Amino acid sequence: MAAGILLHRIAVMWKLRKKKLERFGLEWLAMPNKDWAVSAGLSDAELNNRALPRLKKECHAFVQFRTMRLTANSPNILWVTLNEGELANAVAGNAAMPWDMYELALNGIGIFSKPETYPYKKQKLD
Which residues, listed in sequence order, are joined to residue 27 by a DSSP beta bridge? Predict the structure, then answer.
């Protein structure tokens, strides 16, 4: 869940920010880890222990993270780049992504479908 929340926040910020930082031929968003956590509504522990490791491991095709400095004298901050084309392919289902297993639950198919009758449904009395 934490990884999905962070990815959503990254995608929204990517769309909203017109000016991005440029490095290594890519566009980047950059903030300290603490600011990424606050903007996504996560705790520092959720960001560092759950969200970032999961996104780095499973979503490296469309999101990349690097720890770099903004200037020579500044502290290291987290830089994020997003490949919108690959993200669109993943969302459209053209790539096998880790959330495919949840598609059945989201669409209410198979064992996740609602039962035909609710057990406590009011019945007509004759």
Answer: 22
Supply the pTM of this predicted model.
0.67
Give dist(CA 3, CA 46) in Å, integer.
Answer: 9
User: Cα dihedral sign for 39, 41, 84, 23?
Assistant: positive
Q: Which conformational region is residue 110 in: left (phi greater than 0), alpha (psi within -120 to 50 degrees), or beta?
A: left
Q: Are 15 and 21 within 8 A, CB to CB?
A: no
Question: How many secondary structure helices (H) and strands (E) does the chain include?
Answer: 6, 4
Query: How long a stretch of residues is the chain?
Result: 126
Tens digit of each residue's pLDDT (9 = 90 or more) over 86-125: 877 777 765 555 555 555 555 555 554 555 555 555 556 6
User: How, if at all, do strands 26-31 and 76-82 pair?
Assistant: antiparallel
8-state DSSP, 124 = -
Read off the pLDDT of residues 37-66 as tens digits, 9 standing for 90 and up: 999 999 999 999 999 999 888 888 889 999
